[in-house]
Design goal:
By secondary structure, this protein is mostly helical. The N terminus is likely disordered. The chain folds into 2 domains: 30 residues, no CATH class; 133 residues, AhpD-like. Helix 4 packs parallel to helix 9, helix 7 runs antiparallel to helix 8 and helix 7 crosses helix 9. The chain has 9 helices and no strands.
């Protein structure tokens, strides 16, 4: 839906087909089900994701996944990983502050800040290479094995984000495992 269509819907209260019971705009339709159409690739991504998270704290991984998803504008992944983080006991405050972590570093540990900063540097490679200072701060907080798995985890969530954004996965329906 483009901006003109949004304004038309808001200006035309009789157009109830496009609004839900709360007056919200309708969900978009996904472009395709890439996991069904490319099951081997989907399974490979799941295996990579599983391998990457071994040895890294789930709290840290949730922050990394949420931050990369914010940068990449992947609403589906934001929905999923925010719900997972909340279900795992993460505070709403830390999730909400994550987009402004530089101004609210006091919500995070030094290790989390190093991981978030590295996540941004790897996610936004159009700005250039991962700066040596960023890498050095991460290397000071993580042993080499952890750092290698962190880089794999950041790369993996970026790939998931690209699948989600390009195929327009629909957020709002994910329920975390209990």
């Amino acid at each position: 839906m483009n901006t003109n269509e949004v304004h038309e819907n808001l200006d035309n209260p009789d157009n109830t087909d496009s609004l839900d019971g709360l007056g919200r705009l309708p969900e978009h339709t996904p472009r395709l089900d890439w996991a069904e159409l490319a099951p081997e690739a989907f399974k490979a991504m799941v295996r990579l994701d599983t391998a990457a998270k071994r040895g890294l704290a789930p709290v840290l991984l949730n922050l990394v996944k949420i931050r990369a998803s914010q940068i990449n504008h992947c609403a589906f992944c934001l929905d999923m990983h925010s719900k997972d983080a909340l279900a795992a006991g993460e505070s709403a405050e830390r999730i909400l502050q994550l987009d402004a972590w530089r101004e609210s570093k006091h919500f995070y540990t030094a290790k989390e800040v190093a991981a978030i900063e590295l996540t941004e540097a790897i996610t936004v490679l159009t700005d250039g290479f991962v700066p040596d200072e960023v890498y050095a701060r991460a290397a000071a907080e993580f042993d080499e094995g952890e750092l290698a798995r962190l880089i794999v985890a950041i790369t993996t969530i970026n790939a998931w984000n690209r699948f989600g954004v390009s195929t327009r996965l629909v957020p709002g329906h994910y329920t975390p495992a209990t």
